[in-house]
Write a structure and sequence with these properties.
By secondary structure, the chain is α+β, with helices and mostly antiparallel strands.
Length: 595
Amino acid sequence: MAGDTVQQIKDKLSITDVVSQYVRIERSGANFRARCPFHAERSPSFFVSPERGTFHCFGCNTGGDIFTFVQQIEGLDFKGALKVLAEKAGVPLDYARSKGQNKDERDKLFELLETAVIFYMSRLNEPVKKYLKERGITEETMRAFRLGFAGEEWSAALDYLRGKSAGGGSSSGGTFTDREIVDAGLAKKGEKGFLDKFRNRIMFPIADSAGRVVGFSGRIFGPEAHPDAPKYLNSPETPLFRKSRILYGFDKAKQAMRKHNCAILVEGQMDLLASYQAGWANTVAVSGTAFTPEHAALLKRMTDNLVVALDPDEAGFKAAVRAARVALAIGLNVKVAEPTEGFDPAEFIQKKGTDAWRRVIREAKDVITFLLDVLEKHAKDKSGLRREVEAVVLPFLSEVSSPIAREQYVREIAERLGVSEHAVAESLARVPRTSTAVEVHGVPKVPQERMQEPALSAIPIKERAQNFPRTRLAYAIFLWQQALDKPSIELGQFSSELLDALGDETFNALETLSNSEKETLRFQAERMYSKATVLKREIDALILVILRDRLSAELTEATKALKEAEQAEDEEKAAVHMSVCKLLTARIAQLHEPV
């Protein structure tokens, strides 16, 4: 059962084990803290609780357990995170157990695409292998990346998938439908019915971060191929495949990225395979789209550094420049590999060897220096160079987040142009910054709550309970202490005092908060009071203020009701409200008396 698997994983992996693989954490009392991987920040506001197995960021207000964390940092759904964590924990996922169960649309598409991979791999014939070997790709790499082949038949994949069970067995158990095959991006509807999307192509499966196949890229191959067909054909956008969020090879590269704190970006599948074989397992490639802010955010969660090594032609140069600016805006340190004697990376590695490729990567230049070198090489005079620098380089420099790095670049630009650093800095200050940075998973930055509170009587009880800072803070302390094995206060007494101060309705409204909201409150209380030496005194003062506020609000309401009864000349109601006013006034007076 999925629930059993989740618990097994949690038993074997602590929250610190998981988070520390992606983020550098440091001890902070009973917890750990770090700079949040989900939004840009200078001071740590991301906290991890080993005791409760949860995390929370006070900057972007995101939090959860190990599954939530992996979902967000690797851009996966729950089942993808389950697969990743199960592999880390060494817990087997029993797929056979779920074969007879109903599957949702995404499950069926994942299974269909996996079936298609097996089909295409079985068709990888000798002519295709011979071509790949001539391009320097070994059989070991072919197997590791599960390369396949789509032949010249019009509906070979369709016929195969129609005869395979959606439960993984024979066709007697049900088949993949034409609609599912189309939705997976493997077929299209023509004038004479459904046809295979890919024909006469070497097939490169594209996987998500968990290693699940979500689409394909097909390279044209064979004498039967149409001469006007595009060199590469990629899967269309599907429920699983979003080109702007998927990088080819990312699932295999992510560990190497974290290990070396660097990623290498190339343009095509063959470039990636060649770089991978040359010892750079941290290489990824774009798949049929430009490098996007989502791609950059995905890399930023794994590394701080990016080397852009795209094709050396004009289109490759422009793509490298665009990718570099997107990466700078997300906070990556960007270098650009020099054009490689007219060869794309795959050709260069094959002709010049792995040592030469290693030098190209290690001698990559910071993007600003690279641009200056290119512009200086082609500029006719200093005046032309100045104009090009203002138009091309300064917008890049405006995206550099480090003030020290900016100052170094300003100095270098000034030296090359023969002008003062002040003049360069003044020009830079006039360059508008682009808003390219991505809010990961659409989580907005949450402003800090203000402690200046409106009159309680003007706020409905449920809103008062859930949004009123002092009320939430007291309840947060209660939740925090309640979760501890050894509370630092007498919990029963605190619970009774809190209930009296808040009132039944307010307390019950707070109890309806979701588990994630309650966990956020625990972190808030822990952050504020974990180092308090006199927690009981702090709580007593907070309870007193809340109780005074509540009684004052009730007195205001009772006074209003008394006036309405007097105006209506209802003596009986007036007497009741007068009695309530006297009781509340007396109790408020007691609270103001010194102890």
